[in-house]
Specification:
Shape: globular
Distance between the termini: 49 Å
Strand content: 35-45%
CATH topology of one domain: Methylamine Dehydrogenase, Chain H
Structural class: mainly beta
Largest sheet: 5 strands, antiparallel
Keywords: mRNA processing, mRNA splicing, Repeat, WD repeat
CATH architecture of one domain: 7 Propeller
Number of helices: 0
CATH class of one domain: Mainly Beta
Protein name: Anaphase-promoting complex subunit 4 WD40 domain-containing protein
Number of strands: 31
Helix content: under 10%
CATH superfamily of one domain: YVTN repeat-like/Quinoprotein amine dehydrogenase
Strand order of the largest sheet: 1-4-31-30-29
GO molecular function, one term: RNA binding
Pfam families: WD40
Length: about 350
């Protein structure tokens, strides 16, 4: 069921309606060993954000997931309050949509390539496909026997994949309600990433492994081993060839997933982002230019590395709770973070200033 927008939100047609609070918090102090590394000089602003840092509030539960749409104009977020909130990236960052219908917390959101639709995965064992213009739920996808933790899509087809505590990855065509294929694993699936061409799917799980599935053959092509605890998030490099993972062992890893790569696929282990006792499914991200890797963690910061050198570039403070997902703007130097403290932060960065 699609509910009306709350009184404090802004709809597409009501420009005078009051927006959910989007405010500039007190000055944030991103640092490494006490040195400012991502502070933005007001005279050298490089993004279209209204202020160097914008705080988005309005969620009534922990925010587990947040993502820019492919155009960078919009943000979707969701979490323990079971709602999906839609925001505008620019201006006052108004909330313009509330998508309701899930009966459990929403674990992950995922925009379609044209930004016209949005997927959400929930602990209620279902996925939903939403029309982001009308706010209507277009499809409810059923079939998983347990919590749905994650969703992923390739860049060239309409196929979408979901991973669940039931140990399966299901492939979906949004035009059909039943799953078009089921990939059976051996452990709960907690993280997914799709190769751009849709031929390979990477699935991380509770058994600490990342399985590389051949989507056409429905078989496991290889396994990436190295993490010593649950893999919570995966992200494929913008140019392909590299896979970023984060796990409850408090490490991020960069993997070489190119064909015919050396047997030792783990290129680098990145440290400095503790997972903590909450054991949330923390999701990492690559910058749009592929230079930086970032993840959240239990220390309430966003940790950023230069992936080639492995150097810790920034520890970005500001949240008051676990940072559950980070995402980079597709075109501008803006970093999004979603937190247990019920807020999102949009921050302009300049890592070249270190």
């Amino acid at each position: 069921m699609v509910s009306p927008l709350p009184k404090r939100s802004r709809s597409l047609s009501e420009d005078s309606a009051e927006a959910l609070e989007a405010k500039k918090p007190r000055a944030l102090v991103p640092h490494v060993a006490g040195t400012l590394v991502a502070a933005v000089d007001p005279q050298r602003r490089r993004s279209g954000l209204q202020a160097p840092t914008m705080q988005l509030t309005g969620a009534t539960g922990e925010v587990l997931t947040g993502q820019f749409d492919p155009s960078g104009q919009f943000v979707a977020s969701a979490g323990f309050d079971r709602h999906v909130l839609l925001w505008r990236t620019y201006g006052d960052c108004p909330n313009y949509g509330l998508l309701q219908g899930h009966r459990g917390p929403v674990m992950q959101v995922l925009w379609t390539a044209d930004s016209a639709h949005l997927y959400s995965a929930s602990t209620d064992r279902t996925l939903a496909l939403w029309d982001t213009a009308s706010g209507e739920r277009v499809r409810r996808l059923r079939g998983h026997g347990a919590i749905v933790n994650c969703v992923a899509r390739p860049g060239v087809t309409t196929t979408m994949a979901s991973g669940s505590d039931d140990g399966t990855v299901r492939l979906w065509d949004p035009r059909e309600r039943p799953a078009v294929a089921i990939l059976a694993g051996r452990a709960p699936v907690t993280a997914l990433a799709y190769a751009p061409d849709g031929d390979q799917l990477y699935a991380g799980g509770l058994d600490n492994l990342i399985r590389v599935w051949d989507v056409r053959q429905r078989t496991v092509r290889s396994t990436l081993a190295g993490h010593t605890d649950t893999v919570t998030g995966l992200a494929l490099h913008p140019e392909g060839g590299l896979l970023l993972s984060y796990a409850m062992d408090s490490t991020a890893r960069v993997w070489d997933v190119r064909p015919f790569a050396p047997a030792e696929r783990c290129l680098r282990t990145l440290e400095g982002a503790p997972a903590g006792f909450e054991r949330n499914l923390v999701k990492p991200a690559w910058s749009a230019d592929g230079e930086f890797a970032a993840t959240g963690g239990a220390d309430r910061t966003v940790t950023v590395w230069d992936h080639r050198s492995g150097q810790l570039v920034a520890k970005l403070a500001g949240h008051k709770g676990n940072v559950n997902q980070v995402d980079f703007h597709p075109r501008e130097p803006i970093l999004l973070s979603a937190s247990t403290d019920r807020t999102l932060l949009l921050g302009e960065y300049d890592f070249g200033a270190r």
